Design the sequence.
């Protein structure tokens, strides 16, 4: 087998930035000319995060093939600039589901089905499914923290893989926390020692230890960790806190992490070309201007729920050499009376995706404000649907227009649950070979879209055929299409057969656009998404107009 595997585990506590560290290491290996992919194994029992509340688990990230995945996959795609699929994220639930389905089918020929070997074998085959002759390295991040009960089968599976594949094919990296105790003025290595001890008790001896720390660790501390944890002295690295997440690849490079990996795994790695990362970090630190973007949504107190959105806006800032000042506004607190005051400082207003009725009227009030006051507006998924409702109510005069999601008895369901959708979705399910219960309720994954010339959308993409990712149930109701167009709504993007409206926009406005898809999933720091780039550009013009 050509592919080599790097397993990244975490210790001490969660939220140490394991996903970002894994993504940064992968990016460094890619910069060294290696072909790299990355996978996340999540120990929770949900079959995928699609059913999980964003307040608890953060954003559900959607891949081209319609998999609903952990938000770490968003980091992986952004750092590596590659498209991942449902093979890049497995949960315990998914693994058990497969094993139980096989058991019911009689595949185990009457044997007793057990965690070892059946569950662990299934985990191993999910990991090994990444391997191919053209892939040099697969990084595999194990979710959770060493010591969690539910993580045990995953750790056992990766332990076995070293024996199965050989030492030069498998590397273990363990990320821990080395806290700095202010009163004592020193860092403490004990949590790291305990965490590695726990890992070793499961049969895994890490090769590299990454120590998250707010101060650089000196050689003595590293030597102490190396001694107590039984690793090479030059295999202990500081993963220091960074101001901006995109500094992390350079920070880890300066520590020598990727070089050590290349030596240990005997990788044919060249010197890395880090100029794009250096330029990016330079750009982030030296903005020429600044804009305030108001994000009017429901999950504003839990930023993880808008991870990709936040990043895509930052990328739009990079493209315009503008620092973004993010203002998250709870739409439940917006009313037609206070909207002017609440949004007065915003150079651009964004209404993101969401589900359910809560806060919808506040979003609509924000859109009225953006439309009437010519503030650049970007509506994504639910945000686009709200823009259509707002236009129908306040420009067309259909006062009770709504989405069937919020009011099933509305006389004017401008956004509705498509009846044809059921046939359409059956085809999708067959085509994508997805679980029927998923395709059954949502339009998920990448769909083609055709753009009209002379529109904001076409100006942004500079091409007519695009593909974007979706995650929603409701659609624009074509029964209202002609009337809305006559009233001035521009339909600038549709499915190639014109049956689905994908982008709406306004003329006589500096920049007002709503899209049914989620462009934030495909924006990367090196290739900012065209819609985010143009939205921020419009916000910059707006802010400069204000100061004149
Ligand atoms: N709730 C809307 C729907 O299901 C929008 C979903 C979204 O914004 N992702 O169609």
Sequence:
């Amino acid at each position: 087998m050509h592919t080599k595997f790097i397993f990244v585990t975490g210790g001490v506590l969660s939220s140490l930035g394991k996903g970002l560290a894994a993504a940064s290491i992968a990016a460094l290996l890619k910069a060294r000319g290696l072909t790299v992919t990355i996978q996340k194994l999540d120990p929770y029992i949900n079959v995928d995060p699609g059913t999980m509340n964003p307040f608890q688990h953060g954003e559900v990230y959607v891949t081209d093939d319609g998999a609903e995945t952990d938000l770490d996959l968003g980091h992986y795609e952004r750092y590596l600039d590659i498209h991942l699929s449902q093979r890049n994220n497995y949960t315990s639930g998914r693994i058990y589901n497969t094993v139980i389905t096989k058991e019911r089918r009689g595949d185990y020929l009457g044997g007793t089905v057990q965690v070892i070997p059946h569950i662990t074998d299934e985990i191993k085959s999910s990991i090994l499914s990444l391997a191919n002759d053209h892939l040099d390295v697969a990084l595999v991040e194990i979710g959770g923290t060493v010591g969690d009960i539910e993580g045990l089968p995953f750790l056992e599976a990766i332990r076995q893989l070293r024996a199965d594949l050989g030492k030069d094919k498998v590397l273990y990296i363990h990320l821990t926390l080395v806290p700095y105790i202010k009163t004592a003025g020193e860092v403490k290595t004990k949590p790291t020692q305990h965490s590695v001890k726990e890992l070793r008790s499961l049969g895994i001896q890490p090769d590299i230890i990454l120590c998250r720390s707010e101060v650089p660790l000196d050689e003595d501390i590293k030597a102490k960790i190396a001694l107590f944890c039984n690793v090479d002295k030059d295999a202990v690295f500081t993963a220091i806190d960074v101001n901006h997440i995109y500094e992390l690849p350079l920070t880890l490079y300066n520590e020598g992490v990727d070089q050590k990996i290349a030596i240990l795994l005997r990788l044919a790695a060249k010197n890395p070309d880090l100029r794009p990362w250096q330029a990016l970090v330079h750009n982030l630190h030296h903005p020429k201007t600044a804009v305030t973007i108001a994000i009017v949504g429901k999950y504003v107190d839990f930023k993880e729920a808008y991870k990709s959105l936040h990043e895509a806006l930052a990328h739009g800032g990079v493209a315009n050499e503008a620092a973004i000042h993010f203002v998250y506004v709870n739409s439940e607190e917006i009313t037609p009376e206070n909207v002017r005051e609440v949004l007065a400082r915003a150079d651009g207003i964004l209404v993101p995706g969401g589900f359910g009725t809560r806060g919808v009227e506040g979003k609509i009030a924000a859109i009225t404000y953006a439309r009437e006051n010519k503030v650049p507006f970007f509506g994504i998924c639910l945000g686009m649907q709200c823009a259509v409702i707002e236009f129908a109510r306040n420009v067309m005069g259909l006062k009770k227009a709504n989405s069937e999601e919020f009011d099933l008895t509305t006389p004017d369901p401008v956004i509705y649950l498509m009846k044809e959708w059921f046939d359409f979705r059956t085809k999708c399910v067959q085509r994508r070979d997805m679980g029927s219960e998923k395709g059954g309720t949502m339009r998920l994954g990448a769909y083609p879209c055709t753009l009209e010339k002379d529109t904001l959308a076409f100006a942004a993409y500079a091409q007519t055929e695009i593909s974007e990712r979706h995650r929603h149930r409701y659609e624009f109701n074509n029964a209202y299409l002609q009337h809305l167009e006559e009233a001035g709504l521009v339909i600038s993007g549709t499915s190639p057969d014109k049956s689905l409206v994908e982008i709406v926009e306004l003329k006589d406005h500096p920049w007002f656009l709503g899209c049914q898809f989620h462009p934030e999933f495909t924006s990367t720091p090196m290739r900012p998404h065209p819609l985010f780039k143009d939205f921020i550009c419009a916000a910059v013009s707006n802010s400069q107009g204000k100061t004149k």
Summary: The pocket of glutamine is lined by residues 353-355, 381-382, 405, 471-474 (CB under 6 Å). The chain has two domains: 4-172+246-280, 287-547.
